[in-house]
Amino acid sequence: MASSCSYLPKHSSFQNHSISTNNVTSILSFFFLIFIPIHVLPVIVSSTSYQDGATNDLFFELLKKEAVERLYELGKVSDAHGYLERTFQSPASVTASKVIGAWMEDAGLRTWVDNMGNVHGRCDGLNPSEKALLIGSHLDTVIDAGLFDGPLGIISSISAMKLLNRTDRITKLRRPVEIIAFSDEEGVRFQTTFLGSAAIAGVLPVSTLDVHDKNGVSVKGALRQNSLEIDEESLLLLKYDPESVWGYIEVHIEQGPVLEATGLPVGLVEGIAGQARLKVTM
Ligand SMILES: *[C@@H]1O[C@H](CO)[C@@H](O)[C@H](O)[C@H]1NC(C)=O
Prior knowledge:
The chain is of the alpha/beta class. It has a single domain, classed as Aminopeptidase (3-Layer(aba) Sandwich), CATH 3.40.630. Helices cover about 35% and strands about 10% of the residues. The chain is built from nine helices and five strands. It has helices at about 20-30, 40-45, 55-75, 90-105, 150-165, 195-200, 220-225, 230-240, 260, and strands at about 110-115, 120-125, 130-140, 175-180, 245-250. A hairpin with a 5-residue loop joins strand 1 (about 110-115) and strand 2. The chain is globular and about 65 Å long. The chain starts with 20 loop residues before the first helix and ends in a 20-residue tail after the last helix. The relative contact order is 0.18. The structure holds 2-acetamido-2-deoxy-beta-D-glucopyranose. GO terms for molecular function: hydrolase activity, acting on carbon-nitrogen (but not peptide) bonds, in linear amidines; metal ion binding. Keywords: Hydrolase, Membrane, Metal-binding, Transmembrane, Transmembrane helix.
C-alpha cells in the first residue's frame, strides 16, 4: 500500500450532473505538467473537459506554482542541518504533519491525525457512505532524502482537491475522497517499514508497537511523546474495512531509471516491489 501507485480503478458510469472521481485522477495527471516538456502540454490540457482561461490560470497557480513551492517548503522541514531527514514521530515529522494538515484544511478537507500519526483529510461529496477513493503517500523520509520521495504524492493530491474546492466541485464528488499522509514508510527509525499504512491495512503486528529505536524508545513511546496513545485495541480500530474503500492512488517519483531513459514524463506501474527486513542471528 505504500510505495507506488499500483492500480487505477476503472470508472463505471458517468452522469453530467455530478463530478466523477475520475476528475480527481485527471487533475492528478495534470499535475505531471511540472515535469513534462512544454510540447506535451496541449495534449493533457485538452483531455480535461472543463478548460477556459480562468480555469487554466487556476490550474497553473495551484497545480504547478503553489505545489512546487510547497514541495520546497516541506523539503526544508528536516531534523538535520544541510540535508533532509524526517523519521517517524521526530520533531520535523510532527512539524510536517501540522503543515500538511493545514494545507488539507485550506483545500476544504476535514482533517484528523490518527493514533499512528497518519494525517487524514477527507471530503464526503454527495454520498458520504459510498466507498472512498484513498490517495496518499508518506511524510517520513530516508536520511539525506530527495524532495519528491513521498511529499509529491501528498502535495499533488492536496492541490487536486484544492482545485476542486476553489472551482466549487468538491461538494459534488460522487464518492468520498480521502488523502492520507502516512507517518512511516521508510522505517528508518525502527527498522520496520510501513508503520502508518500497515496499521490502516490492518496488517501491522501488535508486537511492532514495542520495537525500540537505537535510543531505547519504543514505537508506542515515540507516539506517546507526541500525545498519541496506541495499544492493541486502538491499533485494531485503525484498520479500514476493505468494503469502505473503492481504490487507492499514489503519485510517486520513479525510483528507477526507466522513464528518464525513455524520455517519458509519467508511467502507470503494474506492480511494485515489496519490502521486507529480516534480522538474522548467526
Ligand atoms: C473550500 O475550502 C475552504 C477552506 O479553505 C472552505 O471554507 C470552503 O467551505 C470550501 N468550499 C467548498 C465548496 O467546499
